[in-house]
Every structure is written in structure tokens, then in C-alpha cells.
Design goal:
It is a single chain. This protein has 278 residues and is an alpha/beta fold. It folds into two domains: 1-87 and 170-207 and 214-240 and 263-278, P-loop containing nucleotide triphosphate hydrolases (Rossmann fold), CATH 3.40.50.300; 97-166, no CATH class. The chain has helices at 56-64, 103-113, 115-118, 122-135, 151-163, 181-198, 209-215, 245-250, 252-267, and strands spanning 14-23, 26-36, 44-49, 71-76, 79-80, 88-91, 169-173, 201-205, 218-222, 229-233. The strands form two sheets. The chain has a six-stranded mixed sheet, sandwiched between helices. Strands 2-1-4-5 form a four-stranded antiparallel sheet, covered by helices on one side. A hairpin with a 2-residue loop joins β1 and β2. α2 (103-113) packs across α4 (122-135), α2 (103-113) runs parallel beside α5 (151-163) and α7 packs across α9 (252-267). It is globular and about 55 Å long. The two termini are 15 Å apart. 41% of the residues are buried. Bound molecules: adenosine-5'-diphosphate and magnesium ion (MG). Magnesium ion binds at residues 56-57, 173.
Length: 278
């Protein structure tokens, strides 16, 4: 069990109980039990790493409600997940904006669909969209279409579009893998700043240990398929402190954390799930 709930705690943000997913005879994830505590006024940032094909995307898809478990239960704030909802935003590696809508229209899209439920007037929606466009560094690009933007700018649109819905949970599946290194570093810092401002719980898959340690307050490491979470590394991970990635990476504590995570990652090839590295 990853992250045991305290008995007096509020309902967990995410909870998986005995979750198994099979595709035909193939077991993608097996008996996952985890609990992500609710931390109002903070959120939580969890990085997820693991070998390719071990079920990381499957876990995020279950939480997003895009997929159902073969057995077991996935709950979000105590409710069994039955499908997607606006309390959960998802950002993929491939840019998922609407090609026929401008930046402003893309950021406003979800709010327009859910406008009544969210209690937002047309002006409220536009104000919120413009504020997020500014916060994600897209000012001046409001009228452009996705194909007129760089890869990094398109991911900014995806982030702004997701945050406009004020999701309780933001799920990110290798969001920066397609970006060049300088853009990737810029986006990592941007996501930290937005996370601290908006305070959602973030689950972010990455294949970079450095990125996992920079972004996450803790790092989950998956085993090979059938996937389970072998490690939840917390104590070794330094606080983010709003430092830009390159500065954070210079600190001895950061380097030590990268070493601890890398060693645990290397060990999972040999070990059985259920260990606990500190
Ligand atoms: P990861 O994101 O860790 O690379 P995934 O969660 O995407 O892994 O997939 C886990 C395993 O399940 C992989 O072996 C993949 O091929 C398989 N898989 C994922 N989705 C499907 C599907 N719809 N049908 C059949 N097999 C699938
Ligand atoms: Mg994946």
C-alpha cells in the first residue's frame, strides 16, 4: 500500500484498491493499492517513473476515467471513478489542442462547455482565460492557431486549457518528452510556479529521473509489467524552493536524490515489488 491514509484524514484525493487491468491474457497492472492524501492549500506533486510498458499510462487513464479496471476500485475524493470529469485534467505528450480554434478559444473551450455548471458568465470565462494566457506566457498569441505555435507554446496552451477548469487533479503523461532541452527546463519551472499558485494534486509521468526529482515531492517507481509501485521515495527528495531547474540541479541534495532514485530504478529489474526506499 502506497501512502497509508490516516484514520482521521479527509477523503483521499485518489485511492486505488486492488486495481488490476488486463488486456486479454496480458496483465498490464496488478493489484495496485495506493492512496494520495488530500492536502488543501498545497496539493501534492507526485512524479511517476518506470520501465516502458509497465502500466504508467494505464494508471493515469484509470484515474482520468478513460479506462476501467478489470478488478478493483479507483476512487477520486471518495467517489468511484465512472468516467472523465472536470475535476480531473489530462495533459499528454502529443499536443491535444483543437486545431481549428485559436489560443484564446482553446483555453475557453472547456469553460464554455461547462459554463453553466461552473457558474461563469461569458466575461468571467474570458477574464480567466486571459489571466491563464498571461500566466503561461502566451500573451500576444491569443489569436494564433496551434499550427502557428512552437511545441512549447502548444504545451502551454494545453496547460492553460486544463487549469482553466480548476481541476482538483492534474494528470500529466510525459508532457515535455517531445520538447527540446531548454524548452523542457522552462516548462518544468512554469509548471512548478503554476502548481504552487493553483494547488492541484499533480501526477506526472516522466522518463527523466532528473525531471522526476525536480518536479515531484515524491517519486513513485513502477516495476516491470505487470506494473506495481515498487518504491515511493520521499525523504530523499529536496523541497523545490522555486529554484529554476539548472540551479536546483546544482545542489548536493539534488544530486544525492537523483542517485537514490536512479539506484532504486536499477534495482527494480531484480527485486519484487513492495520495497520502500527512503
Ligand atoms: P507505460 O505508459 O508504462 O509505457 P502503458 O500503461 O501504456 O505503459 O501500457 C502497459 C502495457 O499494456 C503495455 O505492455 C501495453 O502494450 C499494454 N496496453 C496498453 N493499452 C493497451 C490496449 N488498449 N490493448 C492492449 N494492450 C495494451
Ligand atoms: Mg505511457
Amino acid at each position: 500500500m502506497i501512502g497509508l491514509p490516516r484514520s482521521d484524514a479527509a477523503l483521499p484525493v485518489v485511492e486505488c484498491r486492488g486495481v488490476t487491468v488486463k488486456f486479454g491474457d496480458f496483465t498490464a497492472i496488478h493489484d495496485i493499492n495506493l492512496c494520495v492524501e488530500d492536502k488543501p492549500g498545497h496539493g501534492e506533486f507526485i512524479s511517476i517513473i518506470g520501465p516502458s510498458g509497465c502500466g504508467k499510462s494505464t494508471l493515469l487513464n484509470l484515474i482520468a476515467g478513460f479506462q476501467k479496471p478489470t478488478s478493483g476500485e479507483v476512487r477520486v475524493k471518495g467517489e468511484v471513478v465512472r468516467g472523465p470529469g472536470r475535476d480531473r485534467g489530462m495533459i499528454f505528450q502529443e499536443y491535444s489542442s483543437f486545431p481549428h480554434l485559436t489560443v484564446l478559444q482553446n483555453v475557453m473551450f472547456g469553460m464554455k462547455i461547462n459554463g453553466r455548471k461552473m457558474g461563469l458568465s461569458g466575461k468571467d470565462r474570458e477574464d480567466r482565460a486571459r489571466e491563464l494566457i498571461q500566466a503561461t506566457g502566451l500573451e500576444g498569441h491569443e489569436r494564433k492557431y496551434p499550427n502557428q505555435l512552437s511545441g512549447g507554446q502548444r504545451q502551454r496552451v494545453a496547460i492553460a486549457r486544463s487549469l482553466a477548469m480548476e481541476p482538483r487533479i492534474l494528470l500529466m503523461d510525459e508532457p515535455f518528452s517531445a520538447l527540446d532541452e531548454p524548452t523542457r527546463l522552462e516548462m518544468q519551472h512554469l509548471v512548478i510556479k503554476l502548481w504552487k499558485r493553483v494547488q492541484p494534486t499533480i501526477l506526472c509521468i516522466t522518463h527523466s529521473v532528473t525531471e522526476a526529482v525536480y518536479l515531484g515531492e515524491h517519486v513513485w517507481i513502477f516495476t516491470q509489467a505487470p506494473g506495481q509501485i515498487a518504491y515511493d521515495i520521499r525523504e530523499s527528495i529536496p523541497p523545490n524552493d522555486d529554484l529554476p531547474p539548472l540551479d536546483a540541479q546544482e545542489r548536493p541534495q539534488f544530486k544525492e536524490a537523483v542517485r537514490v532514485v536512479t539506484e532504486a530504478f536499477l534495482r527494480i529489474g531484480e527485486s519484487k515489488p513492495g520495497g520502500s526506499a527512503k
